[in-house]
Amino acid sequence: MSRTDLLADAFTIVRNAVMAGKENADVPASGTIKAVLEIMQKESYIETFKLIEDKKQGIFRIYLKYVYDKPAIKNIKRISRPSLRIYVKHGKVPSVLRGRGLAIISTSKGILTDKEARESGLGGEVIAYIW
Questions:
Q1: φ, ψ for residue 128 (rounded to 5)?
Q2: Which of 10, 45, 50, 112 is the most buried (most CB within 10 A)?
Q3: pTM for this one?
């Protein structure tokens, strides 16, 4: 199976695991996915994640977070995709659910949250919305 959008596949795996009430999910490893998972962990959407070595590219095991038996991630949505890239300028960085959600932006300084991008005055490619 050829994968053209690893990030969208990872989001789908996490979304399905949350809807099924699983404790963890396994996604293929990449540098971009690691940066997104670090942001999700910092913003308390997941408990933690670890790299599991295999003979190929590796796998990230994501431990999902539940608060009072309700998932911390209500939805996760891929915005910019390979067939349609979405870019924003520094003044137009989106806010998700009036600040209660999280937008992940790929900037020239790395992958940042919408708040960090606004504070740094950076725009970039809108990767995903999480709430």
A1: -155, 160
A2: 10
A3: 0.92
Beta strands in the chain (DSSP E): 24-28, 46-52, 59-64, 66-67, 70-71, 76-78, 87-88, 102-107, 110-113, 124-130
Nearest residue to 105 (alpha-carbon basis) of 131, 74, 80:
80
Alpha-carbon gap, residue 118 to 125, rounded angstroms? 13
The bridge status of strand 24-28 relative to strand 46-52 is: unpaired
Give the C-alpha separation, 118 to 81, whole Å: 22
- DSSP state, 59? E
Helix (H, G, I), strand (E, B) or coil at 94: coil
Give the pLDDT confidence score for residue 1 in this predicted structure.
47
Sign of CA dihedral 80, 81, 86, 90: positive
Residue 3's pLDDT band, with cuts at 50, 70 and 90, is confident
The residue written with tokens 């992958």 in the block is 111
